[in-house]
Design a protein that fits this description.
By secondary structure, this protein is mainly α. α1 runs antiparallel to α2 and α1 packs across α7. The chain is globular. About 35% of the residues are buried.
C-alpha cells in the first residue's frame, strides 16, 4: 500500500496537469465532464497528501485567503436568506471559486512549456467547437436553429465568444513574442486568429467582439512600453486611437441611416391597390425598417391570399421563431421598399419566402454577415424601447428591464442585500406584480454580475467581493503579466453584460484561468 501511494505521488503532478488540461479542453463542450474534472482534481489533491506544507503555503499566501472571501461571503449571507434550496444550489455551482484556487495555489507551479502546452490543447478544443458550429450554420446537419447564436450548441454563445477571445489574444501574443523572423508556427497562429475573428462575426457576437477589442487595447496600453521596434510601437499607438474612433464612426453612421426616415405626405398617398382594395395606414405608428415606414401601403387581405398560395405556413400562424408571421412578412417587405400588397408580394423570390418563414424580419439580416445586422438589430431594439413598443424577445432591451429590477432591489436592500438564495424569488415577485412586457420564458435575472452581487449582498458584500477579486493581483504583483491582465480584463468586462459566475461553465472558465495565471505559473512563465 505504501509503495502504491509513493508510486501514485510520483505521477500525481502529471495527473494534475492532465486533469487541468481536460478541464480547459472541455469548457466549450460539456458541463458534466467539467464537473468530473473538478472532482478528479480534488480527489488527486487529497490523495497526494503533504497537508501540513500545503496548509502552511495557503495560510502564508494572503492573496489566496483574500480570494476565498468571495465564497465566504456567499456562505455568510445565508443568514439573511429564505430560499435555502436555491442558495445551496448556487453554492454548489460556485464550488470552483473555492476548490480551484486552493488546489492550484498549493500545487507546484508550471513553467512556460507546460502552460503553453495546456493552452495549445485548449485552443485546439475551441477551434474544433467553432468547426462544429460552422457545420450547423451551413445547414449540413438536421439540427434546426432559430437564431445564428443557436449554432453554439454546447454552451451559451456569449461564454463561447469569451473563450474564443482568450484563444485569439494568446495566439497573437505567441506571434509577437516569436520575433520578426516569420516561421511556420506564426503563420498558422495568424491564420487561426483570422478564422476565429471571422467566426465571431458569423456568430454575430457583439459582446465577444467588444470584449476582444477592449482587452486588446488594454493589453496594448500596458505592454507598449516593452516594444523595442519603434515602427511597431508607433503603429500600436495609432491603433489605440484609431480603433475607438473608427468604431464610433461606424456606429454613428448606422444610427444616422436608421433614422434617415422617408418623408410622407399622407394626403397624397394612394388609397387603394391596383386591384381596388383599400390600403391600411397608421400615421402615428413610428415603426420603420431601413428608413421606410412599416404601416404604409399595407393591404392585409391581398397579402393573406397571395402568401397562402406561396407558403406552407399560414399567414395568420407563427414563423419558425414563434413570431406572428404576418408581422415578419410586413416588416421584411418594408425593408425592401415594397408595397405590402399582391404586387409587392409577387416581387419576393422563393429565397425571400423561405427567410420570412424562418423569422427574418429585415433583408439586412439575410443579405449581410458580420456586425452590420447585429448593430442594426440593437439600434432597432433601443428605438422600440424608447417608443414603448415592448421588449419581449429583444435581448438588449430585455437586459435594461432586468437591470432596472436589480436597481429597485438594491435601493430597497442597499447595505446588506436580500441574501444568498433570495434573488429568484424577488424577481418572481416583481414579475408577478409589475407588467414588464416579458413573456414567462423570458423573465430572467440581472444579466450583470455587478448588479447581481449588489442586489444579493448589498454594498458591504459588493465591496468585499470586489476587493477579493482585485487585491490578489497587487499582492502577487501580476499587473505586468500578459496572460493575467488578459483574463482579468475579459472576466471583468463579461461582468457588465452577463451573470458570468452563475453557471458552471462561466464560473469555471473565470476561476480556472484567473487562478492558473495568478498562482499556477512560475515567475515570468506566462509572459511569453
Amino acid at each position: 500500500m505504501i509503495k502504491l501511494l509513493r508510486l501514485y505521488r510520483s505521477i500525481s503532478q502529471y495527473l494534475y496537469f492532465g486533469l487541468l488540461t481536460i478541464l480547459a479542453v472541455m469548457l466549450p463542450y460539456s458541463n458534466y465532464v467539467v464537473s468530473m474534472c473538478e472532482i478528479g482534481l480534488l480527489v488527486n489533491f487529497i490523495i497526494e497528501g503533504d497537508y501540513k506544507r500545503r496548509f502552511r503555503s495557503i495560510i502564508q499566501r494572503k492573496s489566496v485567503l483574500i480570494f476565498l472571501c468571495i465564497y465566504a461571503v456567499h456562505l455568510l449571507w445565508l443568514i439573511g436568506t429564505n430560499d435555502f434550496g436555491f442558495a445551496f444550489e448556487n453554492l454548489r455551482i460556485k464550488l470552483p471559486l473555492l476548490i480551484l484556487p486552493v488546489i492550484i495555489a498549493a500545487s507546484v507551479p508550471f513553467d512556460q512549456h507546460w502552460i503553453k502546452l495546456l493552452l495549445k490543447f485548449f485552443i485546439a478544443s475551441v477551434i474544433s467547437a467553432t468547426l462544429v458550429s460552422t457545420v450547423i450554420y451551413l445547414g449540413l446537419t438536421p439540427y434546426h436553429i432559430n437564431d445564428v447564436r443557436d449554432i453554439s450548441i454546447f454552451i451559451s454563445s456569449i461564454r463561447f465568444s469569451l473563450l474564443i477571445d482568450i484563444c485569439i489574444l494568446v495566439m497573437l501574443n505567441w506571434v509577437v513574442t516569436e520575433g520578426w523572423k516569420i516561421n511556420r508556427s506564426q503563420v498558422i497562429y495568424l491564420i487561426l486568429v483570422v478564422w476565429l475573428i471571422i467566426f465571431l462575426m458569423i456568430l454575430k457576437s457583439l459582446t465577444g467582439l467588444i470584449v476582444l477589442v477592449v482587452t486588446a487595447l488594454v493589453l496594448t496600453l500596458v505592454f507598449i512600453r516593452t516594444v523595442k521596434f519603434q515602427f511597431l510601437k508607433l503603429g500600436l499607438i495609432v491603433l489605440l486611437f484609431a480603433v475607438p474612433l473608427i468604431t464610433l464612426v461606424i456606429i454613428n453612421s448606422e444610427v444616422n441611416k436608421f433614422y434617415n426616415i422617408e418623408k410622407v405626405d399622407y394626403s397624397t398617398l394612394d388609397k387603394t391597390t391596383k386591384n381596388g382594395n383599400p390600403y391600411q395606414y397608421s400615421e402615428n405608428d413610428r415603426n420603420v425598417e431601413n428608413g421606410h415606414k412599416v404601416w404604409l401601403y399595407v393591404c392585409q387581405p391581398e397579402l393573406r391570399k397571395e402568401w397562402n398560395k406561396r407558403s406552407k405556413y399560414n399567414y395568420d400562424s407563427l414563423d419558425l421563431r414563434q413570431q406572428p408571421l404576418r408581422f415578419t412578412l410586413i416588416r421584411y417587405m418594408t425593408s425592401k421598399g415594397l408595397r405590402k400588397d399582391s404586387i409587392g408580394l409577387s416581387k419576393l423570390t422563393p429565397w425571400d419566402i423561405s427567410k420570412i418563414e424562418l423569422g427574418y424580419s429585415n433583408v439586412i439580416f439575410v443579405e449581410n454577415w458580420g456586425l452590420k445586422p447585429r448593430i442594426y438589430e440593437v439600434i432597432w431594439e433601443i428605438d422600440q424601447y424608447k417608443h414603448n413598443y415592448g421588449v419581449n424577445k429583444h435581448s438588449v432591451t430585455q437586459r435594461i428591464v432586468y437591470m432596472q429590477i436589480a436597481l429597485k432591489l438594491i435601493k430597497e436592500n442597499f447595505w446588506f442585500g436580500i441574501g444568498t438564495g433570495d434573488l429568484p424569488a424577488a424577481y418572481a415577485q416583481y414579475y408577478k406584480t409589475h407588467d414588464t412586457g416579458l413573456s414567462k420564458e423570458r423573465q430572467f435575472h440581472t444579466h450583470n454580475e455587478f448588479l447581481r452581487v449588489f442586489a444579493i449582498f448589498g454594498l458591504i458584500g459588493l465591496l468585499i467581493i470586489m476587493a477579493s477579486f482585485i487585491l490578489p493581483v497587487f499582492l502577487e504583483k501580476k499587473w505586468f503579466s500578459y496572460y493575467f491582465i488578459m483574463i482579468f480584463t475579459i472576466v471583468f468586462l463579461s461582468f457588465l453584460n452577463e451573470d458570468t459566475l452563475e453557471t458552471q461553465i462561466g464560473v469555471t472558465f473565470a476561476t480556472l484561468f484567473y487562478a492558473l495565471f495568478l498562482w499556477g505559473t512560475k515567475n515570468h512563465a506566462d509572459d511569453n
